[in-house]
Design goal:
heterotrimer; A mainly alpha (about 220); B mainly alpha (about 190); C alpha/beta (about 700); A: mainly alpha; two-stranded antiparallel ribbon; B: mainly alpha; 9 helices; about 0% strand; globular
Chain lengths: ~220, ~190, ~700
């Protein structure tokens, strides 16, 4: 049980994507114009991530190592099609809002990254816990980022007017540049917090998580190879 | 449609990275050295154009007639994965020098949402085959432009004194934001 | 609809699979399966230290034969063994390479230039071309420290990076980021075969030392108490710190920058201290040698040059054999330098250590008689080093030179060295002003003779060491300056009774810059003598190079020495190298040792690459801009003096060693006097605030 909780909870802070595990930046930047969009995207990712982890873990002994990446992609793509269809049926406005980024969940590094790095090596329950934890962490991050951008950019939160007239909305925040800057500042704040913690423990400050191929885990593996 | 406008729009106005939020992972991840950035950019131009054309054909001749539009995602990603694999084999055999310089980037491209994104955008915009080709090449060039510029900036930034918490990805993102702001100025020039 | 979608997807999948399958057959590129195997055993850090782009590239390189089993710089021997296993390659333990920091001036980086902002070496280099006093030195911002993936570099207390050899993997990241090239990845072979280059961090002493010893480095090591490290530094340039610590006339001290302030640092005393420390400790420090190559090299002559050459060849992994004409090794060190300067016990101990590395020695072998270049080639020696020294004495060219009682200084010293009867009388006249003359004179004093040293110029022009001249004076050697012998007067038995000499006066300076002595007509005088030793110069005995028909395949110079390329020491025959007195004419021991190393380096290159070569920017002369004499901001500090082991009056009847070693406290003081010079930089007391500051030293004056 404790290991289950460990795998679940690591996605909530220790490996919180996309801040600690700098993965899947495109949706993070694109759909966080509003908190609602971020939340919706997060839910879609939870669905795909948990189920793909489940399936990959179930099939991990069946899938030949040589074609595993292709298999992971097919699994993820099938799940994404399901999400697309479900969203079209039950949340069409959100589907419209998220646009191209719903099908693009399939190439979100988190899905393949977790499948390759975790689910393909661990038992079913742990993999699901990992997927759920990561997905929830991702949702929280997206919602948080979306909240900030929405709040500063429009003065609203989940579509509700929160800040009154005295606040002049900063349009910049809901546009593309705002997304980059906002995420950058948040990452820096996160690093600063970590470093503050380290300093109180008498450790030396370190550079934040590096975003490169290594964190994704995909680069080391050639697809189909 | 005016092809020139299409090109300008794809490279500058709707820059795939800076305005459309596509391909951000490699954009931040491989923009540490300009040499790597150029290789990655070229690989994206190459693969994106081929993928867009082939997926256009798949959509046009396979999915649309059978009313299977909902299979777009899964079909496209399969095609792209197979294509990347094929290109790798092809380059290795036929043009080894090109494989040497682009080869290591090819595996990264399967999961590059810019490639899938460009293919899907072409479908949503209902481009013709020629427009698809032009748009995908131009978008790829836009990606490369953004990547190389950011890489050059980050190479210099490496030498700068910045708070340690800002070093690396945060600063890269903020630089990308500033670049995006600059590209924002193109907005409305062409639609 | 479900059927259709399944069919379509299946169709796409099948098509893709078929195309890929066909493609993989058609476009199949044979890839050695060993590449993947090799890659899997490599360390996987993708550090690039091997020179290949990443581990996959390295694996390919290994399979293609571009790299050996030891390609991985991180993995060490275990990985190398695995790779060798896969490839079926020979794997021999590799020598450990580590990053090596040459500059010691980091803390002084800010002296001249006030750096603004960017605290990064590369940025400084880009922005201000890293301006500081020295165009080569460390900027001291520690970019290499951050570049090291393995945490092996840290910024030392003196402002320059310090490498932890245990953590260093020689991956080369530090060397890559350093804009000044201060750090290089050096294995022992590279360090041994390196010759001074003009953009090395060469303090004046390092430029001047004929052996190219890294003097500032070993002084620094001694100052830290790291005597073993200091000896290792010295032994990368010369094999005989004990002997050199005793007999070297230390030309380095002549250019010591502190010499412009007060007196030069006692560099040789420090070397001798370290060397004595090892000998007195009773155990020999281990000397590492490269893996055996099994290539045989003949070293003709077991003097300083030959010993040095054999020693370095051995350390480079080759198999040298020394051919010595005498019954013992050492050459002039044994037979030319008297016991009181270099005790035979010390020399024996030192030579034992060198031979102990695995060098073959054949005694009583005369070149040209017992063996020849041809016979050596037949015996499988791939290269030959000729270092037979300069043992032939120049003649006085005066009457009765061959009279009984007249002999050469070297013969006399050799006889003393061999312990045979010298036939010395009571009234000895030594002719000459060099070290050999002084040695002969001081040795004669010890054999209870009344000695007069006759020299045709004055004391100031004497080429002998000042210490020696003073020492001889103290021991009662009488000097007769401005006197040139004109005739040996003999009795009826042909035995010498007097030397007739003519008074000289100094005229205009000659080509060598010394004032030429001119005889004063009619000033001939007689001086009584029953023994005369001439020591007016030596030259190599080159007759052994000539075959019976009088031809010589090698080239003889007009100074009667063996001609060779001055940089590579390669003679007219590509596989024959020379060095030492045979090449230079009579010179210092340290010069011979240095030439021995140079020759070993050339032979190593000749064996491995086919031809020896030297870097284009090799340092040959003193580098002008480093030789300034105005050295401000340095406090005075008194030089330690070498204690004398025995008193003056006792000296004349004893061959015991005269000079003792300074003690540990004095060594500390002496190392503290070192200004830690770079090319142009040096420690300014006022800025540095070292333990003994300028005022304190002034008080002690």
């Amino acid at each position: 049980m404790s290991s289950l909780w460990k795998e679940f909870s690591k996605g909530l802070w220790k490996d919180l994507p996309p801040f600690k595990l700098v993965l899947g930046l495109c949706p993070v930047l694109a759909v966080t114009k509003t908190a609602y969009n971020g939340f919706g995207m997060g839910m879609a990712v939870i669905f795909v991530l948990a189920l793909s982890n489940l399936l990959v873990s179930l099939l991990r002994k069946v899938i030949p190592a040589k074609v595993r990446i292709a298999c992971f992609i097919v699994v993820a793509a099938s799940l994404v099609v399901c999400v697309e269809l479900l969203m079209q049926a039950y949340a069409y406005p959100l589907y419209q809002q998220l646009g191209i980024f719903v099908p693009l969940i399939v190439v979100n590094c988190i899905i393949l990254g977790r499948a390759e790095a975790f689910a393909s090596k661990n038992p079913v329950l742990l993999s699901v816990a990992d997927g759920l934890g990561m997905g929830i962490g991702f949702t929280i991050s997206l919602t948080f980022l979306g909240s900030i951008r929405e709040l500063l950019g429009t003065g609203q939160w989940f579509g509700m007017q929160v800040l009154s007239d005295w606040f002049e909305p900063v349009r910049f925040m809901v546009e593309a540049p705002g997304a980059f800057v906002c995420l950058g500042v948040l990452l820096a704040a996160m690093n600063a917090f970590t470093n503050w913690q380290r300093r109180t423990k008498g450790l030396e400050a370190v550079q934040g998580p590096v975003h490169d191929c290594k964190t994704c885990g995909m680069c080391a593996t050639k697809p189909g190879a | 449609m005016d092809y020139f406008v299409l090109v300008i729009a794809a490279i500058f106005v709707n820059n795939i990275v800076l305005a459309q939020y596509l391909g951000n992972c490699p954009f931040i991840g491989t923009s540490k050295e300009s040499g790597v950035a150029i290789g990655m950019g070229l690989a994206v131009v190459f693969v994106a154009a081929m993928a867009a054309v082939i997926t256009w054909c798949v959509q046009k001749f396979l999915l649309a007639p059978n009313d299977l539009g909902y299979l777009q995602t899964i079909a496209f990603i399969l095609v792209i994965a197979a294509l990347v694999q094929f290109v790798e084999l092809f380059l290795k055999k036929v043009i080894p020098p090109l494989y040497k310089s682009l080869g290591i980037f090819l595996p990264l491209i399967t999961t590059n949402c810019a490639v899938l994104g460009i293919a899907i955008i072409c479908q949503r915009e209902e481009f013709t085959l020629l427009e698809t080709l032009i748009f995908s090449v131009a978008s790829g060039l836009g990606f490369m432009l953004a990547l190389v510029v950011l890489a050059s900036i980050r190479e210099r930034l490496d030498l700068a004194r910045v708070p340690i918490s800002m070093k690396g990805t945060p600063l890269g993102l903020i630089m990308a934001g500033l670049m995006s702001l600059a590209f924002f100025a193109f907005k409305g020039m062409a639609s | 609809m479900i059927t259709a979608s399944v069919l379509v997807l299946f169709g796409i999948g099948l098509t893709a699979a078929v195309i890929l399958a066909v493609a993989s057959k058609l476009l199949y590129v044979y890839e050695d399966p060993r590449i993947a195997q090799v890659e899997s055993v490599l360390a996987g850090a993708n550090c690039g230290g091997c020179g290949f782009p990443g581990c996959a590239g390295a694996a390919q390189g290994v399979v293609e034969g571009k790299a050996g089993a030891n390609v991985c710089v991180i993995g060490g021997d275990s990985v190398a063994a695995k790779v060798a296993g896969i490839m079926g390659l020979d794997f021999s333990a590799t020598e450990k390479q580590i990053a090596f920091v040459d500059c010691t001036g980091g803390v002084r980086a800010e002296e001249i230039y006030q750096y603004q902002g960017a605290r990064d070496c590369r940025a400084q280099h880009l922005l201000y071309s890293g301006a500081k006093m020295c165009p080569e030195g460390c900027l001291g911002y520690g970019t290499c420290v951050t570049a090291c993936q393995f945490g092996a570099i840290s910024m030392g207390p003196n402002g320059y990076p310090v490498v932890d050899p245990n953590l260093c993997t020689a991956c080369g990241s530090c060397a890559q980021v350093c804009p000044r090239g201060v750090i290089s990845i050096w294995g022992m072979t590279a360090r041994i075969t390196h010759v001074n280059e003009v953009n090395d961090c060469l303090a004046p002493c390092r430029q001047r030392c004929p052996g190219q010893i890294n003097i500032p480095r070993y002084i620094e090591q001694v100052s830290r108490g790291d005597y073993a490290g200091a000896l290792e530094t010295i032994r990368e340039r010369i094999p005989m710190p004990l002997s050199i610590g005793r007999v070297c006339p230390h030309p380095c001290e002549g250019v010591c920058r502190r010499g412009n302030v007060d007196e030069p640092v006692g560099i040789n005393m420090i070397k001798r201290f370290a060397a004595d420390w090892e000998m007195n400790s009773g155990t020999r420090l281990p000397i590492t040698c490269a893996p055996d190559t099994g290539r045989k090299v003949a070293v003709v002559g077991g003097g300083p040059a030959g010993l040095s050459c054999a020693y370095f060849l051995r350390r480079l992994g080759h198999a040298p054999t020394i051919f010595e004409s005498m019954p013992k090794l050492g050459g002039q060190l044994r037979y030319g330098i008297p016991e009181y300067r270099l005790p035979k016990a010390v020399l024996d101990w030192e030579i034992e250590g060198i031979i102990g590395l695995g060098i073959d020695v054949k005694f009583n072998q005369f070149f040209g008689k017992d063996f020849s270049l041809e016979s050596l080639a037949e015996d499988g020696y791939e290269a030959v080093f000729l270092g037979i020294g300069a043992w032939m004495n120049l003649n006085l060219r005066i009457d009765n030179e061959d009279a009984v009682g007249v002999s050469t200084g070297t013969e006399f010293l050799t006889k003393v060295g061999l312990g045979v009867d010298t036939g010395i009388g009571k009234k000895v006249v030594v002719i000459g002003g060099g070290n050999t003359a002084i040695d002969a004179a001081r040795t004669s004093v010890r054999l209870d003779a009344d000695v007069t040293l006759m020299y045709r110029r004055t004391r100031d022009e004497m080429p002998a060491n000042m210490d020696e001249i003073i020492g001889a004076d103290e021991e009662g050697v009488k000097y007769l300056f401005l006197a040139a012998p004109t005739r040996i007067v003999t009795d009826d038995a042909g035995h010498v009774t007097h030397v007739e000499y003519i008074q000289m006066e100094l005229g205009a300076p000659d080509a060598s810059g010394r004032r030429r002595p001119v005889p004063i007509e009619g000033s001939e005088t007689l001086i009584e003598a029953d023994t005369v030793y001439t020591a007016i110069g030596q030259k190599p005995e080159l007759s052994c190079l000539y075959d019976d028909s009088g031809t010589c395949t090698l080239e003889e110079t007009r100074w009667r020495t063996l001609g060779a390329d001055p940089d590579t020491l390669q003679t007219a025959l590509p596989h024959v190298f020379t060095g030492g007195d045979m090449h230079t004419g009579p010179a210092l021991v340290i010069t011979a040792l240095g030439e021995g190393r140079k020759a070993a380096r050339s032979i190593h290159q000749y064996l491995n690459e086919g031809a020896p070569h030297v870097p284009a920017n090799m340092q040959r002369d003193m580098i002008d801009y480093t030789m300034f004499t105005h050295v401000p901001d340095v406090g005075l500090r008194e030089r330690s003096t070498m204690p004398h082991l025995i008193e003056c009056d006792e000296r004349t009847c004893s061959f015991k060693e005269i000079e003792g070693a300074i003690n540990e406290e004095q060594v500390k003081h002496e190392t503290c006097r070192c200004l830690r010079c770079g090319l142009t930089c040096y420690n300014r007391d006022l800025a540095e605030g070292q333990t003994c500051d300028a005022e304190e030293c002034l008080k002690n004056q």
